[in-house]
Amino acid sequence: MAAFDVLRAFLQARGALTEDELAFIETLFVPRTLRGGDFLQRAGDVSNYVAFIAKGILRSYSIDDKGNEHIVQFAAETYWLGDSASLTTGAPSQFFIQALEDSDLLLLDRPGHEKSMRVPAYADGFRMGVLRHTAAKDRRIVAALSASAEERYLEFLQTYPSIVTRVPQFMLASYLGISPETLSRIRKSLSRPKRGRGRGGSLPGDKNQSR
Amino acid sequence: MAAFDVLRAFLQARGALTEDELAFIETLFVPRTLRGGDFLQRAGDVSNYVAFIAKGILRSYSIDDKGNEHIVQFAAETYWLGDSASLTTGAPSQFFIQALEDSDLLLLDRPGHEKSMRVPAYADGFRMGVLRHTAAKDRRIVAALSASAEERYLEFLQTYPSIVTRVPQFMLASYLGISPETLSRIRKSLSRPKRGRGRGGSLPGDKNQSR
DNA sequence: CGCGGGTTTGATGATGCTCAAGCCCGGTGG
DNA sequence: CCACCGGGCTTGAGCATCATCAAACCCGCG
């Protein structure tokens, strides 16, 4: 399926747009393909667009003063990826955005974004999407601050089952804020819950305690 | 200063609005005052408005299955507070919103929000604000996942110096995702850095290590 | 067939939580 | 006016979780 068809399907799924509106919206996007490993953007760049992912999967991450990578987000088909900070301030970005597989994107630059807002149904969809996104971030913050490494992993499995299999384990660990070793151990312990038949639930020494 | 004046000042500071536009916007908000301790909203409520804080300070928090509180956000003068999740889905909220001091708010409900978007300069400001907000959440996520308790505390001091003195310590601890005991110890260790004269900087046993 | 990146496994230690007292201080009622 | 709360903050001791360091392992690829 061509990139624009994916976008079309996405837009139609969440709001009634006329054919004219769809056609207009499409003129605002610029297609772009990336090979696995390619960068859409590097820290220091001033990048002023948002990407809609028609195919593939990307990560955005930062590198702190100590040289450690921190994955902020994964994004796969029909997700959007952009650099909010750089978009608001116009300042150079702090983030790297890299394709993890061969990917097809549609890029929307700032002027394009402004124009797209003239289509009311699209603007509404945009605001809804942003709110949903914000809610997801709130949940992640609470999880990061209060859940154990294992809980965070399980939650990720539930929330993004399709992504787990497509990213290397050490990146998942980085996203979850745990070391690769710890993630490896967690998976091991989950895979052999011994315990009677099926379900695997109810761990033996379950503390049922938060931190 | 009356609540509407605060809003006016806020809006004018970040975008040129005509007197007519300002007047129109103001008709959309409903004032509300709260005493310290009062709730604007409780989990289970379906609340469909966003609050602009003209005076005072509020917290939003959730309570997990184990009964632990998690503070998602503090918000003081000229900040906005709302429940993104509940706003998008219309589903009952997961969050409590409580005033920590006597506070003056201006509430904007959903229809009001839609109408306000008709003022282009206001809509632009709204989008900018949302993006800025998103960027802040990204930073907090990275910090939560990778910084030590002390680093998170210091970052909070820097970012929200005015809030630190206005909220009880155990709530700050909850926001930072650490236990009240740990926060107490961190403050103690920061207050007596022994070390030469003044400034208190350059910790003695600084590890300069991430986790 | 050997290399190299990613994953696993083990041992050790630090960070920060829990539980349990004690303390400080502002408010209330005798 | 003062004794007595009670909530929040502090302090201490022990312990769980998870990071770090180091080595072995696995496997696709040149």
Put the structure in a nutshell.
Chain A is α+β, with helices and mostly antiparallel strands.
Total number of distinct structural domains of chain A: 2
CA gyration radius of chain A, whole angstroms: 20 Å
Low-confidence runs of chain A (pLDDT<50, min 5 residues)?
195-211
Strand content of chain A: 15-25%
Report on this model:
- Two copies of one chain form a homodimer.
- Chain A is α+β, with helices and mostly antiparallel strands.
- Chain A has two domains: 114 residues, Jelly Rolls (Sandwich), CATH 2.60.120.10; 45 residues.
- The first copy, chain A, is 45% helix and 21% strand.
- In chain A, helix 8 crosses helix 9.
- Chain A is globular and about 55 Å long.
- The termini of chain A are far apart.
- The C terminus of chain A is likely disordered.
- Chains A and B meet through strand 5, helix 3 and helix 5 of A and strand 5, helix 3 and helix 5 of B.
- Chain B binds a DNA duplex (30 and 30 nucleotides) through helix 9.
Give the key terms.
homodimer, 211 residues, alpha+beta, Jelly Rolls, 2 domains, four-stranded antiparallel sheet, 9 helices, 8 strands, globular, DNA-binding
Helix and strand topology:
The structure is a homodimer of 211-residue chains.
Chain A: H1 3-13, H2 19-28, E1 29-34, E2 39-41, E3 49-55, E4 57-63, E5 69-76, E6 80-81, H3 84-89, E7 95-99, E8 103-109, H4 110-116, H5 120-146, H6 149-159, H7 161-164, H8 169-176, H9 180-191
Antiparallel strand pairs in A: 1-8, 2-7, 3-6, 3-8, 4-5, 4-7
Helix pairs in contact in A: 8-9
Chain B binds a DNA duplex (30 and 30 nucleotides) through α9.
